[in-house]
Amino acid sequence: MIKIAISTDEAKIWKGDALLFLLTEETCKDYNDSRIKTLVERGDFKGKAGSVTRVPLFDSPAKNLYLAGLGKNEKQNVNLPGVLTSALRKIGKERNQSVFIILNNDGFSKEESVILGEAAGLCGYSFDKYKKKEDGDGDGDDAFALKEIFVRSFDADVAQKGAAFASGQCIARDLANEPGNVINPPILAEIAEGFARERNITCEVWDEKRLAEEKMGALLAVGQGSETPPRLIHLTYKPKGAPRKKVVFVGKGLTFDSGGLDLKSGEFMKTMKGDKSGACNVLGILDGASALGLGLEIHGILAAAENMPSGHALRPDDIIRARNGKTIEIDNTDAEGRLVLADALCLASELKPDAIIDTATLTGACAVALGSWTAGLFASDDKLAESLLSSSRKRGERLWRLPMDDEKIGESLKSKFADLINSGSRYGGATFAAMFLAEFVEKGIPWAHLDIAGVDFMKDDSGVWARGASAFGVRLCLDYLTDL
User: Fold this and answer.
1) What is the mean pLDDT of the chain?
2) In what order do the strands lie in the sheet with 64-69?
């Protein structure tokens, strides 16, 4: 863990490895430091958002000077999380053990202190447990070295809140990055049980026998083709006193998704170890809630299965029955996430919460619509939607609200042979899936669905994101909870 502390030294006399100045395009032009003035005049640094310039120092107590650009003045608050995390990642990878951060010639405000705590928790993340040390990204010359951050001022309490946000996200990333030969549904259940014991959270696991008794027909159907059976994992966090509200998080936990008999192509099957990201996010959210001691009752429901082709697998044309009694005709076995979520959302509704939020790598259609940096938000309640959008903006995890009231798409949900069909036209696929899920949420309960299919996996380090699983949504959901 990186330590954050206050230093009363002026930057020019501070003894350490790295000085980091965070400057906008405007402030860098007028900054009262000869070294910075020289770099700006020569055009080596212009304050452009995301730019980082390193200058070795030979006549200073500090060893290196780093300048990081925040872009235009009006954009600096939006850019700060990514710029700060990226700059600290670079500083740590370049073997600096300590850094003194100057933000526009000042310390960190209360909200900026949350970002500081997040950046300190996220900047050193990498999933390298299966790499040899000499392969790099481990204990070699490019190992992450940063141990101490010094600032002129910050709010330690809210920085700890940011650290809890980051810790939850990193826990979710670690689990989502694990391959399918390491984590399957029963193993995920065992991990959840251990996780709960360490955090004073209760955990109940339903095996395949209990799932049948509980009429979880959709979840069972998805997992029936695999040698490893499905699991329903129910985590509960309760505060010491009376809870202000009750919130349920539901996560899609496909530990591997081959597509089933409607087999994916090799290109699209790769990274499907991450189809459990939604469930992993729920664990991360519960971790953060526990660490923060939130005065809320929070439930996490993880619907875990492995979608594999076999002689026992779910087939196109099959008709299955979900927990609430609705029948579903199978049009495509690769539209399986909405099936496991259907049963989980029924169970979530039975808890009579103040809100339900599900998070899932649900549709390629959402990724096509919004790209690799924005997740889709569908909501039955405007107040809940606005709260999530507000937290999205604060935490830099971009959401875009999409419609789920299309009458024509609603008509296409109907099957000729069952109550519903699980897949429809290629057009409006993300809305179709959201409207399908709505069939399993009790009317009157505020509900939101986060489709993270386009943002769950990052090819390279970028801003707050590290290569691999992103755990997108953990920090914004925790931010939402802290505001309740």
Assistant:
1) 95
2) 3-6, 148-151, 98-103, 18-23, 64-69, 52-56
Query: Is 198 buried (19+), middle (13-18) or exposed (0-12) by CB count in 10 A?
Result: exposed
Residue 301's beta-bridge partner residues? 234, 250
Taking alpha carbons only, the member of 419, 460, 458, 248 closest to residue 347 is 248
pTM flag (> 0.90): yes
Q: Please, what are the domains in the chain?
A: 3-154 (3.40.220.10), 162-482 (3.40.630.10)
Distance CA 481, CA 477 (A): 6
Q: Is there a contact between 373 and 398 (Cβ–Cβ < 8 Å)?
A: yes
Sign of the CA dihedral 183, 187, 189, 193?
negative
- Cα–Cα distance for residue pair 478/284, rounded to 1 Å: 9
Which tens digits make up the pLDDT trace of 188-224? 999 999 999 999 899 999 999 999 999 999 999 999 9
pLDDT in tens, 51-70: 999 999 998 999 999 999 99
User: What is the b/e burial string over 330-357, where b = at least 16 CB atoms within 10 angstroms of the residue's CB?
Assistant: bbebbbbbbbbbbbbbbbbbebebbbbb
**Closest to 303 (Cα-Cα) out of 327, 279, 271:** 279
pLDDT digits (tens, 9 = 90+) for 69-104: 999 999 999 999 999 999 999 999 999 999 999 997
Task: Report how far residue 121's alpha carbon sits from residue 166's, in angstroms, rounded to the nearest whole number.
Answer: 5
Only one residue has tokens 């196109």, namely: 316
Residues in the chain: 484
CA atoms of 301 and 235, how far apart (whole Å) = 6
Confidence of residue 142 (pLDDT cuts 50, 70, 90): low
Residue numbers annotated as active site:
264, 338
